[in-house]
Model the fold of this input.
Amino acid sequence: MALGWFRKARSGLQRSQVAWVSGWGSGEGPRSYEGQAREAYLANPIAQRAVRLVAEGAGSAPFVSRPAGHKALELLRRPNAGQAGVEMVETVISHLALHGNAYLEFVRGGDGAPAEIYVLRPERVTVETGTSGWPVAHVYRAGGNSARFPVEGSDGRGGLLHIRSFHPLDDHYGAGALAAASGAVAVHNAAARWNKALLDNAARPSGALVFEGGDGTLSGDQFARLKSEMEAGFQGAANAGRPMLLEGGLKWQALSLTPAEMDFAGAREAAAREIALAFGVPPMLLGLPGDNTYSNYREANVALWRLTILPVMAKMCAALGGYLRAWWPELELDVDRDAIPALSADRERLWAQVGTAGFLSDEEKRAMLGI
Done:
């Protein structure tokens, strides 16, 4: 009875999946993924740098295999003719950070094993579910065309590998950090536009024209003429500081903003820190002031690797290894931590501890060090 209810609930969710892909998020920014990506990654330096720090760091970490030197490593080093393995890893990690989902298409060779890997844009992929509510296929749509990939890959194309982040309210899609950061991105971008507007107007707030003649009111024609003259002759950076010639009865009264209203810089810094927090990057690495969490840049870099890059790379290695074991059952994938400069101090400490352990044999020490 409980299982039947669960299946019906999952089946009912599939009607809302497409809507979720095309419109999700929170905050004052755009709700579509494309709009959020443009506002954050393409228009916000903090969000773009945070994503690139994680993605480029992950791309610089080489894969290792057990058994050593497995043929799968060559596939990961050169996944297809137009892309290197580093680019593929950066793309996958960026999709996971922004969208929460990454899709990889595996094309089989003549021997039936995967010969090429292509990364697909996640907002173009929808999950097609069966009557039980479980995924039966992935559908990729682009430019009016669509391709259907059965989950079992029975069409001979190799199928899709879906890597996703955790989503508490969805059975088939992951949640990216972009949705959580959209509010902070909107505040940060709005503060930048506010700053730009102040600079365009001589870096000072505008004032008011007060009419002191007659009954204190202007006719409609007078008001329209005065407004057009103000916009043409005194608005914008090109007219900053230009003297104003007023007719009889008009008086210029400058306006000022309170310190609280002028504190857009503080709001912008707070929003920048929230963006960095959403993507798991220590603010110190983004050059944000006032960050005393880490005593130096090196500690912040190590924290980035330990808390953000290595966990997401472990997720990717587990997903790739689990998928490729259908052809190579003995395969185990991992990241070569010895090749990561940020973790060299940890490795030196481990070597020193193992080297001074007199109760261990040489073979046991080599095993502990992964040699």
Observations:
- Confidence is low (pLDDT under 50) at residues 1-27.
- Residues 25 and 179 are 4 Å apart (CA to CA).
- The chain has three domains: 1-205+272-339, 206-255, 345-371.
